[in-house]
Amino acid sequence: FLKRLSVFRENKNVMLEGDIIKKIARIFLCNHDILIGVSLRLLVNLSFDRTTCQQIVKIPGFLPRIVSLLDNEMHQNPALCLLYQISLEDKVKSLFAYTDAVPLLMRMILENSRDALPVEIAALAVNLALCERNAELMCGIEKDSGELNGSGLRLLIKRVVSTGDPQLLKILRNISCHK
Predict the structure, then answer these.
(1) Spatial contact of 146 and 105, defined as CB atoms under 8 Å apart
(2) 150-174: string of b/e by CB count within 10 Å (b at 16+)?
(3) Contact yes or no for 50/84 (Cβ under 8 A)
(4) What pTM did the predictor assign?
């Protein structure tokens, strides 16, 4: 019900005034998949407002909890959409380096069996690669173990040569723009 209401600006503003983000954050502490899924979709609707993303980032442990949902197939797509909205802020991109976002994202990129990356994965990776620390992590992730060893860049280049995916080229371009 709240998800439908959140589409309208007036309702969204009332929800934000009522500290709904803090209340939703408490829901994420439980392991009830249906409740987390509904709350996640509500957050996606609310995330088009920049203040929502700022509130999400300010709550300790909330961003890493959302990132951890990337491992859950049921929540992966809405979590990617929400993380993408959050990553639009330049100041926030660096916070992703302190979560498991980059290793999980690299695993999703390298294990994807389709020639073209799903838009949600590609969009988040393009945004995160704009932060120098995230780019360093992307360059150093090994495909199988997720350990840092410098092979991430080689694996990305190998994948782009084999698939010709333009989204991967954007990721590589953003990685290469750092010193």
Answers:
(1) no
(2) ebbbebbeebbeeeebebbebbbeb
(3) no
(4) 0.86
- Contact criterion met (CB below 8 Å) for 46 and 2: no
Confidence of residue 147 (pLDDT cuts 50, 70, 90): low
Question: What are the tens digits of pLDDT across the range 127-137?
Answer: 999 999 999 89
**By three-state DSSP, how is residue 24 classified?**
helix
H-state helical runs in the chain: 2-5, 9-17, 20-27, 33-46, 50-58, 62-68, 76-87, 90-93, 101-111, 119-128, 132-139, 152-163, 166-176
The DSSP symbol for 106 reads: H
CB 84 within 8 A of CB 124: yes
**Dihedral angle at the C-alpha atoms of 82, 87, 89, 91, nearest 10 degrees?**
130
Q: Are 151 and 143 in contact (CB under 8 A)?
A: yes
What confidence tens digit (pLDDT) does each residue in 156-172 have?
999 999 999 999 999 99
Q: Report d(CA 8, CA 144) in Å as an integer.
A: 44
Tell how far CA 126 is from the center of its chain.
11
- Residue 171 CA to residue 73 CA, distance in Å, equals 23
